[in-house]
Every structure is written in C-alpha cells, then in structure tokens.
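Hi, here's the filled form for the chain we discussed.

Project: internal
Contact: R.S.
Residues: 257
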Amino acid sequence: MKTVDVNCDLGESFGRYTLGRDADVLKEVTSANVACGFHAGDPLVMRQTVRLAREHGVSVGAHPGFPDLQGFGRRMLDASAEEVYAMVVYQIGALAAFADAEGVQLQHVKPHGALYNAAGADRELADAVAAAVKDVDSSLVLYGLSGSELVRAGEAAGLYTANEVFADRAYNPDGSLVGRKDPRAMITDEEEAVKRVIRMVTEAKVEAVDGTDIERPADTICVHGDEPEALAFASHLRLALIDAGLEIASPLGGSRS
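And the returned structure, exactly as it came back:
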C-alpha cells in the first residue's frame, strides 16, 4: 500500500491575533509545520501548538520563514546565503527547545512562503537551508517543493527529503507554483483539487496551467490551515485518499485512518 503524508502550516497566531483552527485541523493531518516566530507565531503559541500536536499524535516540524510578520513571510527579502543559514538554524533551534520540553521528537523542517519559493529555485539558498538543517540535526526530514532545487540540495547534503505537492495551488509548466497574485493560483473546486492530488500521489503527474502534464512525485501533501474552508477540505481529502487505497502517515511514522 502506498503511503503519503498530509501536512499543514500551523501555529500562525501571535499575541492577540488568532489565525486558523489548529486544534480541529490537527485531527485530519499527520504532520504539523509550526511557525517559529519570524513570519508568524510567538513563544506561547509555539509551545501550545507543539502540545496540541503531541496530544493528537501528529508529527512536528519547524516552519522557518523570513522575519516579516507584517507580510506573513510572503515578501522576498534580499538575504544572503549566510543570513538564510543563520535564520533557519535559529528558528529550528527555538522550536526544538519547545519540542524537547514537551517530550516531542522534531521530525522535519519546511521553509515558509518567500523563503520556500526562493530556496526552491536558487541553489545557493537551497544549499544554505539544507546545511542549516543538517548542522542542527541530520536526522530531520527536509520538505521541499516536488522536484525543486531545495529537494536536490537536501539529497546532496545526505538528508532524507520529502517531495511536497499542494492540494490547492496551480502549477506553472516549469513545475513552480503559480504566484498568488495570479487569479489562477488557487484551486477552489474541492473535487478538482482532490483529483489532482490523488493523481500526483498515484501517477506523479499534474496538469499545469497551460494544459500540459508535468511530473511531480508526491511524498507529502500540503493543505493550508489559514484558508476559510481548511478544516472541511482537510477532512474531505483524507477520506478521499483512504478511498483511493492510500495509507496516510508521516514520513517517520504516525499513520491516520
């Protein structure tokens, strides 16, 4: 039976601001990418999210981003590879401390937003992210956009990598995600999104916006916790994957049925 992970970006509230329905979404996924305070989250939210993930049997990963709370980490910063390395080490270390305090083994690292996209295309930045992960803990899984420079950098560094695909995002012919300012960026039809995901998992293919098929192997599927219909879609997707004969489990264990 083929196994696939379902992950979600969580812990994105901070201070007096609440974002997402983390406790509910955690019932539907197998891995949680926890914001580390740079693009979202704060120390208390980080601790609470790690604890919630533990209570739901969900694997925990660090979700480092650029230091950009106002832009939610989706604005590109002109950061050097050395700066990116330091940012990622800093954020993994912060979440790892909370994980250790809660008796949780950190499973993975998945960059966020603009950092994720930049490292997916720029090999120098990808190498910096991979080096940061390896230097903190070489047993961590590096999540990256399927077929991207980030995945290749992780493999070159000797890390275990997971090719990530997106349930609700459209793809360019080169395999990159369609930019969020493009009206075609989001897949809003749930049935279409589910069919696309199952095809990526079972056939390693997806239709790009120009109608061509591109190869995109899927080890892990991202659902977005900050979208209005996140909870309903996560539940729908989980049941559809099971109906398709797939087992849902995180890369290092923790299945969900």
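Let me know if anything looks off before we file it.
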